[in-house]
User: Which sequence fits this backbone?
């Protein structure tokens, strides 16, 4: 991810939010603003009706005007209630729809990002960005629009009444406002800084919770409950402190307004009270003005919160927009100039391919050819680069240098969707989705031939345990497949790969979680099926590798030997050493 200055991010993230998400809902927002204006204007009428109440009813004790003034005030409050309900309903609907759209877009965008992106960004942090930051945006967007729409009109209406009754009183009551400018600017800066810290701490909390809940078995087996609790307590405390600081900053805005209001009321009481005693103003004038000024500071307080809420909104927008600006490096764009066929007629070919992660060298100068329909085994110690080869073929990652060709075409020029439609994968992780066994096998596809599907279940030995489940194929595997054993999860992954029936099969330690009996049966059952495919298998077990048409031996990211089992076993070298050590281990 490239770095951008905070100010630049903030401006672009806000404009991105306005033009991409608020603009499509502009009609709904504008309609809510109309009802906000109606609700806000009613406060001015309420404060002015107090003058009529005192000067036309209470002071002259005119019984005939009681009903008129009473119905007037009732009507004002009724209109305000209806307008308030409608504007809240409309702006809440707009806010929820806007944030739902953002969450959908960001989720879809993250799913499309390169595999490498997830090496640097934890699932917990990404979840917090989508869910936590999305919620903060929704709440603050609604509050900001309501303040700017309703409270701006309320403020204007109440100021109009105040200045209409006595402009000198109004100026006296507002004399303290200029002294707020510097404190508010300082508070804004503080709130933005502490809000960013709050969101980062919150994301860290989600990350640790995600790790703890997924690794609960390891936590208990290693007896590290206290260690995990201490880690969680520390980050939760940091989140609490940052959160409290942000809320404290927001709360400081209305507190400053109240101090100015107190000074204003003191001035009006002294100056205005004297004018009433001297008979220059009526009691109705004073009560109406007093009501207007008492009401004026409430919308003013909410408006003063807007700057703080905007900082909270910006902090969350920055985090979401930052992810949104990350572009996948692996794309479907085809450069016609480089889309030329290789001289080689091999189905799959690596030409001097290297891969680095920072300064760490993962693969160095890999060159290999695989023919169509060939069975290939990649063997070597853990960390030698075997699994990385499969990730390069499926374009989860791109090589740092060199080229990979598929059927004579540069792999980088093959659209990702087309490439992966030709590949079936069984990985070491065997991640399952929180769904039924059936859905985890077929995924988005449909079963066209039920007899063939049942045959696949038998080949992958899924039928062995499915037939013993009351729900059968409808059994829910649970989050990450935790309701099943490791071997059962691996059998489902094998069935999924067989069901895809792709030309190229990538098998990363495909039977590592199976017992010997099941492993032998699955290998025997799938042999005929796999003989028709191009199969690349990574394995530690040379008993499996020896049946491959070709074996590539990896050591520290390099191919140190290649050939058939019978040829490699005759040579002194790394393969013979591996074979001998495994034979010795089996005897023991």
Assistant:
């Amino acid at each position: 991810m490239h770095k951008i200055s905070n100010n630049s991010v903030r401006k672009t993230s806000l404009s991105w939010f306005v033009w991409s998400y608020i603009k499509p809902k502009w009609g709904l927002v504008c309609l809510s603003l109309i009802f906000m204006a109606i609700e806000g204007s009613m406060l001015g009428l309420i404060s002015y009706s107090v003058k009529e109440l005192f000067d036309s009813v209470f002071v002259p004790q005119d019984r005939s005007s009681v009903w008129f003034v009473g119905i007037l005030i009732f009507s004002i409050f009724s209109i305000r209630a209806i307008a308030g309900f409608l504007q809240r309903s409309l702006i809440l609907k707009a806010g929820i729809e806007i944030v739902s759209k953002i969450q959908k877009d960001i989720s879809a965008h993250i799913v499309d990002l390169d595999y490498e992106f997830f090496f640097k960004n934890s699932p917990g942090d990404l979840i917090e960005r989508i869910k936590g930051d999305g919620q903060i945006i929704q709440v603050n967007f609604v509050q900001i629009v309501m303040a700017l729409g309703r409270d701006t009109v309320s403020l204007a209406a109440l100021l109009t009444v105040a200045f209409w009754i006595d402009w000198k009183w109004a100026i006296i009551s507002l004399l303290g406002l200029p002294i707020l400018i510097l404190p508010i600017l300082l508070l804004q800066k503080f709130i933005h800084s502490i809000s960013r810290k709050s969101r980062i701490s919150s994301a860290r909390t989600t990350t640790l919770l995600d790790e703890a809940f997924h690794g609960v078995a390891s936590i208990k087996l290693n007896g590290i409950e206290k260690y995990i609790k201490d880690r969680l307590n520390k980050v939760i405390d940091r989140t609490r402190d940052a959160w409290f600081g942000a809320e404290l900053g927001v709360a400081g805005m209305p507190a400053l307004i109240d101090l100015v209001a107190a000074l204003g009321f003191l001035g009006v009481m002294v100056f205005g009270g004297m004018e009433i005693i001297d008979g220059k103003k009526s009691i109705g004038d004073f009560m109406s003005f007093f009501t207007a000024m008492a009401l004026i500071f409430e919308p003013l307080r909410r408006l003063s919160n807007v700057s703080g809420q905007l900082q909270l909104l910006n902090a969350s927008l920055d985090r979401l927009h930052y992810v949104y600006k990350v572009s996948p490096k692996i794309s479907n764009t085809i450069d016609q100039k480089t889309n030329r066929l290789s001289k080689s007629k091999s189905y799959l070919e690596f030409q001097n391919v290297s891969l680095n992660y920072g300064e760490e060298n993962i693969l160095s100068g890999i060159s290999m050819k695989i023919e169509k329909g060939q069975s290939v085994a990649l063997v070597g110690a853990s960390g030698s680069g075997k699994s990385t080869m499969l990730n390069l073929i499926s374009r989860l990652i791109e090589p740092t240098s060199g080229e990979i060709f598929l059927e004579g075409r540069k792999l980088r020029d093959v659209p990702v969707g087309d490439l992966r439609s030709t590949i079936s994968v069984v990985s070491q992780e065997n991640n399952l989705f929180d769904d039924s066994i059936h859905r985890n096998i077929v995924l988005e596809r449909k079963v066209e031939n039920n007899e063939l599907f049942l045959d696949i279940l038998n080949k992958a030995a899924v039928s062995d345990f499915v037939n013993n489940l009351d729900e059968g194929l409808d059994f829910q595997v649970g989050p990450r497949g935790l309701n099943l054993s490791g071997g059962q999860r691996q059998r489902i992954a094998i069935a999924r790969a067989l069901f895809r029936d792709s030309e190229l099969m990538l098998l990363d330690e495909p039977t590592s979680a199976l017992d010997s009996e099941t492993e032998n049966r699955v290998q025997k059952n799938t042999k005929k099926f796999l003989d028709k495919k191009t199969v690349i298998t990574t394995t530690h077990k040379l008993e499996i590798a020896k049946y491959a048409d070709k074996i590539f031996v990896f050591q520290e990211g390099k191919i140190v030997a290649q050939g058939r089992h019978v040829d490699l076993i005759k040579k002194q070298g790394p393969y013979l050493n591996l074979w001998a050590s495994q034979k010795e281990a089996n005897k023991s």
Notes: The first strand starts at residue 348 and ends at 357. The radius of gyration is 35 Å. The beta strands are 348-357, 360-370, 375-380, 401-406, 409-410, 423-426, 504-508, 534-538, 550-555, 558-563. The longest helix spans residues 225-277.
